[in-house]
Amino acid sequence: MAKMNGAGTKEAAAGGAQVTFLEAIRQAMFEEMERDPAVVLLGEDVGVYGGAFKTSEGLLARFGWERVMDTPISESAIINLSISLCVRSTRLRISWPKDIIFGTRPRRW
User: Fold this and answer.
1) How far, in Å, CA of 109 to CA of 62, rounded?
2) The Cα angle at residue 101 between residues 47 and 10, in degrees rounded to 5
3) From CA 82, how far away is CA 103, in angstroms rounded?
4) pLDDT tens-digit profile of 33-85?
5) Nearest to 10 by CA among 30, 25, 36
6) Which domains does the chain have, with CATH numbers?
7) What are phi and psi of 95, to 5 degrees?
8) Does residue 13 or residue 77 have the better pLDDT?
């Protein structure tokens, strides 16, 4: 397995090493944020904690609080902030809890 560093992840991609799904997500976020300064990440626990699955680990140290934003546990606040940032032509990467992304909440019939 390729070990990722905080400065970027191009070594793993260039070498053709296999990476996990979560490592690939982290690599993509590093690459996009390095490529385009208008890309920001916002979500619950994405800053200091590094995300629920550690996919944003290292992003805060590399890009700072202006581009990696922790949000309150409030979907409406995240949506409102997202709309405001989009009006300013900011490209967003929103980190939702896994039960929203993958639909793993129990269904009630």
Assistant:
1) 45
2) 55
3) 21
4) 999 888 888 888 888 888 888 888 999 999 999 889 888 888 888 888 888 87
5) 30
6) 10-101 (3.40.50.970)
7) -100, 110
8) 77
Distance of CA 52 to the CA centre of its chain: 10
State residue 2's pLDDT score: 45
CA dihedral 25, 51, 9, 2 (to 10 degrees): -80
Token representation of residue 80 = 């409102």
What distance in Å separates the CA atoms of residue 10 and residue 4, rounded to the nearest whole number?
Answer: 9
Q: Residue 94 in 3-state DSSP?
A: strand
The encoded tokens of residue 99 equal: 């039960």
